[in-house]
User: Fold this.
Amino acid sequence: MRKIFVAVPLTIAALFTTGAHAEDGALTGAVGGAATGAIVGGPVGAAVGGVAGAVIGTAIDPPPQKVVTYVREAPMPTKKVVVEEHVVVGTALPETVVVTPVPEDPTYAYAVVNDERVIVEPSSRKVIQILN
Assistant:
C-alpha cells in the first residue's frame, strides 16, 4: 500500500512538468514511464518504465506543421518507389530510397515509399511521421 502513496505523487508530478522540461521529450518520457512503471511493477517497473519512456519520448515529437504541409503538397514523383519492408515510424529507410530535403527546414527530409509520404531525419534516414 505504501508504494501506491509514493507512486501517485510521482505520477502527478510527471503530468505537470514545467515548460522547460516539456521540450525535452526524453526527460518527460522517462519521468512518466518511471512513475507508471513504479505503480505497476515497483522498483523494477520504475527502472524499465523510465528507459522505455525515454525512448518513446524522443520518438514522439512530430515535425512542425509547415514541414507536414510542404510534404503533403509536394508533387508525387514520376517513378514509384516500392520496398519490401513495411515502413514504420522509428525505423530507417533503406539506402536505395532517395530522400529529398525540405527546403524550408533542412532538418527534415521526405520520400514517397509504397505510395505513402514519409517525413524522415536526413542524417539517420529514420522515419519520423507517415502521412496518409
Observations:
- Residues 4-24 have pLDDT under 50 and may be disordered.
- The radius of gyration is 19 Å.
